[in-house]
Design brief:
Elements: H1 2-6, H2 10-28, H3 37-55, H4 61-78, H5 86-101, H6 106-118, H7 124-144, H8 150-169, H9 173-181, H10 193-209, H11 213-220, H12 228-241, H13 244-256, H14 262-274, H15 278-290, H16 300-319, H17 325-348, H18 356-376, H19 381-401, H20 408-436, H21 441-465, H22 469-493, H23 496-504, H24 511-523, H25 529-546, H26 551-568, H27 571-590, H28 604-623, H29 627-640, H30 647-666
Length: 667
């Protein structure tokens, strides 16, 4: 009052004096205990602020005075117990009017609006009326072709969200959804499409809480599909609707979104687990795994946890009766390959030692799964080969990384996995050639090189780590089989020099290996006779040295060798053939007498062939005046007569014929 009087504002001073007098008269009727200084102060401040505000149209400086008085009054109001009374709300509205009159900035206006909204008494009636008013206001805007400014639109959006959030927290989800849905009105498009998407996501979440999933799905379709938050809400709705395929698609889209946050996928992981959607959980884990990059600083341990969870899930899905095995097997192999790639990345940045236990788990699981798949998975040869190859590479890293001594069993598993992987590749190559008639030469050369590397690796491990004789014997048999594979690939490539080199390495090869090599060369029409003979000769020598070849098979290969030697028809070849025939008579002498014993009985047709061949060769030598050689052939034929029916009679006939022919050629 005094300030107004000094400034010559008599009307304001008179008004304030009247108010003070009225308050004084009112206080005289109250008991001293009922008089509170705070109430008097608020009354005076209220009157001052109103007076200054009213007179500010004549004196603009009074507007600042009104704001100061009102601010002090509101501060005392906020400290009182009844801060939401209608009288106090009027004061807040007055502050908003003062701010608008002095054209305050947006933050101050928003703060004033927030204070009003925070102290509103919401009810069904006024919420419905407010919603209707806002809707009506927005409906009138398009008709007037008006677009709110960015500041005004931001203020409206803020109010909408605050009202919606308040209703959402009060579990009035349908009302909250209506407030949020207003945010996509054309009048607010100045805020950009992201704001509208956020409003509709909030509305969709309200319907999810109300279990109105169809309406939630309708709302979420109004949102930008390339936003991670939209994908997450879509996933949430699909899960509650039981639509696993749609949920999987949303999870994958989430990983491709620009504002992707791994925390969203972690929430999706929990949601999929609680919903028992294994396929969705697998998809979410895969998306998480794709976001991991060991080279860029992500922890390898985190990546290993994800890949192990994914592999466990796949194995559980494979064990289900109605599992789609071809798809799951393919996915499983891809995950093991991904795990192997992660291990190689960790190895390249020298972090493999941090996950040795994970590598151990991975190679054991890959190996055991492949072994089990050999008996349970149909038409999955390629997948099994890939699994064994992954197990081989993981085992190699494990043996090179582990700080303690590696058990011999681990090395045995490495040998088994290596051999199984290369064997699978050979079988696949045969299958492709059988179907297409041919295969690329580069593939054969690569496979040949890999077979040789595998054989040398197996032998090196055997020499380094294996001490058990039984294990060594088994591993040597692997090496023999790999030799056969090398022969097969060399034949397909026409590399006969390599074939000769392999065949001549006789010391470490078993009889069965030579026989397999001979079978391959015998079937190969383009194989040179010299190379075939070398293989057959090595086979017979090995069988005679080790007495390991069955008599019936020995007779077959001996006949082939003698045929080759006699077809050359050189003195040296005939002498060599004669030695083999003599060796055959020795074998026949020690063979079984029972024709039913296929393994030990020298076949009768082979005996007859030997007898006829020895006799005819002797006759040819006599015609060629090779008397000494002819004599040896005839003598051998008479020896063979002991092992054929009516042998004595035939022996006498051969002797008579030989004597007669010898006399004629000498005469």
């Amino acid at each position: 009052m005094e300030a107004a009087w000094r400034e010559g504002n008599s009307s304001v001073a008179s008004f304030m004096l009247q108010k003070i007098t009225d308050n004084a008269q009112h206080l005289t009727h109250l008991a001293p205990s009922d008089v509170k200084i705070g109430d008097l102060k608020r009354s005076i401040l209220r009157s001052l602020s109103r007076a200054y505000f009213t007179s500010s149209s004549h004196d603009p400086e009074n507007l600042s005075r009104a704001e100061v008085a009102l601010q002090e009054l509101i501060t005392s109001v906020d400290d009182s117990a009844d801060k939401a009374s209608s009288e106090y709300q009027q004061l807040r509205w007055m502050r908003l009017a003062i701010l608008k009159r002095r054209k305050a900035r947006d933050p101050e206006l928003l703060h004033a609006f927030k204070s009003i909204i925070d102290h509103m008494q919401l009810s069904e009636t006024n919420v419905t009326e407010a919603t209707a008013d806002v809707v009506a206001a927005f409906d009138s805007l398009p008709e007037a072709d008006v677009e709110l400014s960015k500041v005004s639109a931001a203020a409206c959006i803020t109010l909408l969200w605050q009202c919606g959030d308040r209703l959402y927290n009060a579990k009035k989800w349908n009302d909250a959804a209506e407030w949020f849905r207003i945010g996509i009105h054309p009048a607010l498009k100045g805020m950009g499409p992201s704001t509208g998407s956020k409003c509709m996501r909030k509305a969709a979440l309200c319907h999810v809480q109300q279990r109105e999933y169809a309406m939630a799905a309708s709302d979420i379709r109004h949102c930008a599909s390339n936003e991670a938050a939209t994908c997450y809400v879509t996933l949430l709705i699909a899960v509650y609707q039981g639509l696993e395929d749609e949920a999987i698609k949303a999870a994958r889209d989430m990983g491709q979104a620009a504002n992707f946050d791994r925390n969203m996928l972690l929430l999706a992981t929990q949601l999929a687990h609680e919903s028992n959607m294994k396929a969705l959980l697998l998809s979410v884990l895969d998306t998480l795994l794709q976001a991991v990059n060991v080279r860029e600083g992500d922890t390898i341990t985190e990546a290993m946890v994800l890949i192990r969870c994914s592999i466990r899930l796949l194995l559980k899905l494979l064990a289900e009766p109605a599992a789609n095995k071809p798809i799951l097997i393919k996915t499983l192999v891809e995950h093991f390959s991904t795990a192997n790639s992660l291990v190689q990345q960790a190895l390249s940045v020298q972090k493999a030692s941090l996950v040795v236990k994970d590598i151990s788990w991975l190679w054991r699981t890959a190996y055991n799964t492949a072994v089990q798949g050999c008996s349970e998975w149909d038409n999955s040869e390629t997948a099994l080969t890939d699994l064994f190859q992954v197990a081989t590479e993981l085992l190699t890293v494990y043996c090179d990384t582990v700080l303690v001594d590696v058990d011999a069993d681990v090395y045995l598993h490495l040998i088994n996995a290596s051999f199984s992987a290369i064997t699978g590749r050979v079988f696949h190559t045969r299958q492709v050639i059988g179907q297409n008639g041919s295969i690329e030469e580069s593939h054969l050369r690569t496979l040949t090189s890999d077979i040789e590397v595998c054989r040398k690796k197996i032998l090196a491990i055997t020499e380094k780590a294996l001490r058990n004789d039984e294990d060594v014997t088994r591993v040597q048999s692997y090496a023999h089989v790999l030799r056969v594979f090398e022969i097969e690939m060399a034949c397909r490539l026409g590399n006969w020099i390599a074939v000769t080199d392999i065949v001549t390495e006789t010391d470490a090869l078993a009889v069965e290996t030579f026989e397999a090599i001979a079978d391959i060369l015998w079937e190969e029409k383009s194989c040179p006779v010299d190379i075939l003979f070398t293989a057959l000769e090595a086979l017979l020598h090995a069988s005679l040295d080790h007495q390991a070849l069955a008599v019936n098979r020995f007779s077959r290969w001996l006949r082939a060798m003698c045929t080759i030697l006699l077809s050359r028809n050189t003195p040296a070849d005939r002498v060599k053939a004669l030695k083999y025939v003599e060796q055959a008579s020795t074998v026949m002498d020690g063979s079984a007498d029972d024709p039913d014993d296929d393994e030990l009985f020298y076949p009768m047709d082979e005996r007859q062939w030997l007898l006829g061949t020895a006799y005819n060769t002797g006759v040819e030598c006599l015609h060629a005046s090779l008397l000494d050689e002819a004599k040896r052939w005839f003598e051998t034929s008479t020896v063979i007569c002991k092992f054929v029916p009516e042998g004595r009679k035939r022996s006498e006939q051969i002797s008579e014929t030989y004597t007669h022919l010898l006399a004629r050629y000498r005469g």
